[in-house]
Write a structure and sequence with these properties.
Blueprint (H helix, E strand, L loop, with lengths): L8 H45 L4 E2 L3 H15 L2 E7 L5 E6 L11 H9 L3 E7 L2 E12 L4 E10 L1 H51 L14 H48 L6 H33 L7 E4 H18 L3 E6 L4 E4 L1 H17 L6 E9 L2 E8 L6 H4 L20 H11 L3 E7 L2 E9 L17
Parallel strand pairs: 1-5, 8-10
Antiparallel strand pairs: 2-3, 2-6, 4-5, 5-6, 7-9, 10-11, 11-13, 12-13
Helix pairs in contact: 1-4, 4-5, 5-6, 7-8, 8-10
Amino acid sequence: MRRLPLNRLSVKLSAILFAVVAVALGIVYVAVVPRLESRLVNAKIDELHKAAKVLPTQVNLSPLAIQQSVRLVAAQINARVVVFQRLGDDSLAVFADSSPVPGEIASDSVARAALADQDVRDGRSSRDDQEFAEVAFPARLSGGQIPGVVLLSTRLDDALTSVELVKRSLLIAGAVAFAISWFAGSMAALRVTRRIRRLEDAAERLADGNFDVPVRDDSVDEIGQLARAFDRTRVRLSQLDRARREFIANASHELRTPLFALGGFLELLADEELDETTRRDFLETARGQVGRLTRLATDLLDLSRMDAGQLELVTESVDLRAVAEALSEEFGPLAEGSSHRLRLVASGEAHALGDPERVQQIGRSLVENALRHTPGGTTVELRTGVRNGLAELEVHDDGPGIEADDREHVFERFYRGGSGAAFGSGIGLAIARELAQAMGGAIELESAPGGTGFRLMLPQAGAPAAFPRENALVKR
């Protein structure tokens, strides 16, 4: 027979529910049974007290008359009546008894307590394997010459039978409750463990790189929320995996193209018949391909440094207008070659706090992005200014705009857009945003049909920082 593992969640939950029911029934048993028994016994004793109040404390009858009298009283109050006389050694002897079977009653503890204290006493006693409720009070026999005690005793059979009935009922109810709780707990635990096992299977699929199967659980409880979190993770991992594959393909393309070009130029440069002008043109083109490789390698190195928290930054005043002028001059030939119009629109000085080299790097990424992703004939403007204590460098174009589905992803690593042609490695804007955050700033995107603007905002030199720096990347 197969044993059920004790470390299974279903077994644990069933055991917990079983224990809760057991504790609850135990509390009910302890709270109800003794109290019920005490109240029933006290009710019997109270009845005897009422009867004792109407009985005389002086007994002047002869022994024969007393015997008849106690039997009559016993029948009236439905209790045994015993009259004791005190002997010289303070022991008791039965003087009259309504019961035809005296038994071992002469040593009754309640009667002896009433004799010793000369006061009314009550209690519970056992005789002949039976329980009795008793009340005793002192009396004087034969004209007050002989001290004695009158004992009223009634059996507790009916009261104790009721208590036993309650006990049996609680035990039967407890057994039924235990069975039901174990079954219900097992069913509930089985349902929970099945759902958890589905999440476990989903985690195994994610660990194996299978991101195609959705994680489904339509309930609104914590497991349902966890399942939805798993599914969001699956979607995100799927996007990252797709972006990783695309990045590898793009990076391979980005590397292969300039490498092939460089190889071809080197072969051509080895030709001794090239004239000097052609040789210089080849060298200039080869230099551009080397710069392209250098930028890609720099981007990859920046990513690794950001992830390791080892990006080194300096903080000093940066003239954003001068940065915009340098970018306009640097990208002027590229814009002209791609039929773009690159204009500088500067509204006064804008001095920011940041790393000059990194600010220039961000500006290059924004301008290159605008020139790459807009059609020929588009105007790209470089704007600078100060607003709300922030120095701004904006790259704005009057192109078709960015699709709504792409706007929230353009700053993600390796994302290259889902519409239209995609160029580059997909890490330029991601690096730009992280660099801006590292310098205590941010990059905002505003896009609509007919225009797109990327705005770099940095703390103004001499003004308090407007952005929290908890996301800043600093050297560890």
